[in-house]
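== Sequence and structure of one protein ==
=== Format: two labelled lines per protein ===
==== Data for this protein ====
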Amino acid sequence: MRERPKLSKAGRRPPAPDQPRGRRPLVAALMMSTALAALEGTIVSTAVPQIVGDLGGFSLFSWIFSGYLLALTVTIPIYGKLSDTLGRKPVLIAGIVIYLVGTILCASAWSMASLIAFRIVQGLGGGAIQGTVQTIAADLYPLKERPKIQARLSTVWATSAIAGPAIGGLLATYTHWRWIFLVNLPIGLIALWLIHRHLHEPSRTRTTPRPAIDWQGALLVFGAGSCLLIAIVQGGIAWPWLSTTSVALLSAGALCIALTVVVERRAADPILPGWVWRRRTIAAANLALGALGLVMIAPIVFLPTYAQAVLGLGPVAAGFVLSVMTISWPTAAAFSSHLYNRIGIRRTAMIGIGLASLILAVFPLLPYPGSPWQPALLMLLLGGALGFFQLPLVVGVQATVGWSERGTATASVFFYRQIGQSVGAALFGAVANGVLTSRLGGAGDLDSVSTALENPDSLTADALERLRRAVDAAVDHVYIGAAMAAALALLALLFIAPRRFPVFDETEAQEDPV
C-alpha cells in the first residue's frame, strides 16, 4: 500500500490477537452478531400490519423503527470509547446480552408503547454490536487482509436485506409476529458463546492509573443526540417544524452540545475526544460518510414507492429492484483493496462516490413510466460504486490509529453515517412532500399517496395517472438531492482529506497500557 508515512507512537496497542485456530469461530461470531443488527429492520417491517392489528397504536408504529435507530445512533460513540477503555470483549458481550433481553421483552410486549420501549432497549444493545464488531475485525486482521473480513460482514448485510422481508412475512403469516423477535435468540446465544470462548484479548498492564470513565460526557452526548434526532425525525410529521415542541427539542439539543464541549475539554479521558475532528483523515471520512447516510435514503426509502406507484410492481418485485444494490455493494467492496493498494484510499473513494453522484443524477432522466430493468440496472451500478467508496474509508480510518484509539475512530465513522441517514430521512421526506403537494394542488403527501395506492380501484384513471406522475417527480427530486449529497462527499475528500492516508506502523508499536 502506498500510504505509509509514520504516525506518532500515541495510541499504541499490544500485538493484535493472533489466534489461527480461534479466528474462524470468531469470524462466524462476528457475522452472526452483525446479522442480529442487520435483520432487525427488514424482518420487522413486513410484520407491521400484524403488529398494529394485535397491539393497536397505528399512530405510533413508526417509533418501532425510530426508537431503535435513535438508541443505536446516540450510543455508538459511547460504546466505541468504552471498547478502547475496557476492551472489546466485555463491551460486545454486554451489547449482545442487552440486545437479547430487549428481544425477549419485544416478543412479550402487551401494547404499542411497551413494544417501542423494548425496541429502545434493543437499540441500546445494537449500538454496542455495530461499532464493536467492526473494531474487532480490524484487530484480528492486518491491514492487507481487512477487506476480506469487511466484505464478509457486508455480505451479511446484503443477505439480510434480501432474506429479512421474506422471513418476516413468512413468520407473521404462518406463525405469529412475536416470532420475528424470538428467531434472533439462537443466533445471538451462539454468537455470545463463541465470543466468550474464542475471543482472548491480550492482557495489558498500565504504567499510570486508568482515567475515570467520562459518564458525564456520555450522558450529555446521549441527551444531545436524543433531542436532536427526535426533533429531526418527528419534526413536520408528529408536530410542525416551528411548533413549541420542535423549538424546545432543538434548544435542548443545542444546550447539551454546548455543555458537551465544555465537559469534554476538561475530561481526563473524554468520551468524544477532540482528535476525532483535529485529524484531517478522520474528519474528512466522517463528513464523507455522513453524506453517504443522506445518499442511502433515496433508494432505501423512496425507490420501493417509485417501483410500486410508477412502475406498477408488486411489493416483492419492488423489493427486488432495490435488492440488486445489496448484491453489487459487497462484491465491489471485496475487490476494492486491489484498487486502493494501487492508487490509494483517497482516490479509490473519490472514484466510487464520483460514479455514485453520476448514477444518481441519471435517475431523473429515466423515461416515464419506463421498465423495471432500468432502475434495477442503476441500483446495481450504484451498489458497486458505493462499495468502492465506503469500505476503503472505513479501512483507511482504522489504519490511521492504534489499538487504544481504534474503537473510538471506528465508532465515529458509523455514528456520522447514522446521523446522515436521520437527517436525510427528514430532509428528503420534506422535499418529496413539497413536490407532491405542489403537483397535487395541496392535496397530497407521502402518507396520503401510500394510502391511495393501496386502493387504486377507488381512483379514476386520470386521478391515478396524475398521482403516479406526482410520485415520479417527487422521487426524481429526491435523487437529485442524493446526487448533490454525493457531490459534497466528493468535495470533502478532495479538499479536506490528505492525499495519502497515514498508516499506523503496528510493527513498532509498544504495549499500550489500558
